[in-house]
Structure formats: structure tokens, C-alpha cells
Amino acid sequence: MTVLTEKIADNVKKVRENKPLIHNITNFVVMNITANVLLACGASPVMAHASNEVEEMVGLADSLILNIGTLTDDWVITMINAGRCASDLRKPIVLDPVGVGTTSLRTNAARAILFQTWISVVRGNATEILALADKDCGSKRLEAIHSVTDAADEAVRLARELGTTLAITGSTDLVTDGRRTLTIEGGHPLMPYVTGTGCSASALIGAFLAVDSDPVYAAATALAFFGVAGETAGVLAGGPGTFMPLLLDALYTLTPDEVAARARISTL
Q: Does 1 show up as a binding residue in the annotation?
């Protein structure tokens, strides 16, 4: 095994052994899916977004996921308050900037969260990352219209500027903190056809951050695990309707050694 494959196996094992509590302030569309993905991988999910309990919940949790998929003004305030609390407690935070660049609410919210909290990892598609970088990405749709390659150079620059780690997901994933850059192969073509796979990847990164203090390795190994699980599910899936249950089964049944043997992570 290489250092990276050993890290993958170790992180999968630690998540299952430690069962970290992952606090999700996430969108209504994916709450059930995200919770099931976290449970299947061995973590413990909690969905809590009431303004008068988020800080207390952050204190109990091992990591925090902020997902702006179904945003309101009140939720922006709640996310910033939760993020500030997690930052003060030095707990890892994952930001999923769903649809950033499509509306001013989403764009301004994502930037406010970034500048008022200490984000460990931003996980988005290439178009979202380009929008965060203040580039005119030309999209008014929520799905990606750019490839990971399109955003790679800008991601390295943006990661340095923000002092955070960026994880861009697509047919090939890329993780960078501006100094180290890793690419991850894997997944299945059916993944974009199931609501919540991207959001679930963000949550899975949060689970790995709870057991691995290095954001680059935590994000890359989480995405490698998710990619192997996607490939496993795709073998038997007849379409999107059967894919998600099989993905949950794969996350639950894959052994750490299997994941390590099949993961494909490269250093750029």
C-alpha cells in the first residue's frame, strides 16, 4: 500500500469505529439521503437548523456541514452563527455552495460564510467553484456546465487566497489547498442522475474530517471512498431508482482494504 491508500483504509476504519456526530444544516431536498449516507458509512448524522439550538449542537458535534441548497435569509444568519461557533471551537466545517453564481442570495451567502467563519473544505462542482472565484461562469442553472479541468488552475489560486481546501467533484475529482493538489478517479455515470450525491459527498467529507485533521487527505480519501462505492453500486443498478439503495449498501459493506485496493488517487 502507498501512504495515500493506507490513509484511505485508516479513515474508513476510524469513521466506523468512532461514529462521529456530523451536524448538518442542509437543504430540504437531501436531508434523508444525506443522513442515510452518513449512517451507511458509520457516522452519526444530526439535522439541526433552529437558530436557538445550533450553537449548542455544534458543541456536541465533531464536524459541521453548511449546505445552501434551499436557502433563506434566516438560514444564512443561522449558518454564520453555527460556523462562528465551530470556528471558535476549532471544529471542521464543510461548505457546500449549491448553485452559487445563479442568484445574488446564494452568491452573497456563500461569500459571507467564507469570510466570517473558518471553512476547512469547500466542496462544489466546477461551475460553483468558478463562481466563488468571482468569475463570470455564464450559468443560471444549478448543474455544472464546466469540467474540473476548466476550474483547476483557478481552484489552486482561490484555495491560496481563502486559506482553505477546495474539493471539486465531477467525472474526475480534484482536491487542492493551493500547495498540494490531488486528483481522484472513480464514481459512476448514474451519480449525476440521483438527487443528493454531491451533497452526500460533502457530508462524507465532514465525516472524514472528524477523524483526519488534514483537510486535503480527509477530502481526497472521502471522495475516493465515495467513488469506489459508486462504481460498486453501478455494476448492478438498472437506473437511478436502483442506484441509490445500492450505493448505500456499498458504503456499508465495502471493507477498508477493498476501498484502498480500488481507490485511484494521484498527485499533481
A: no
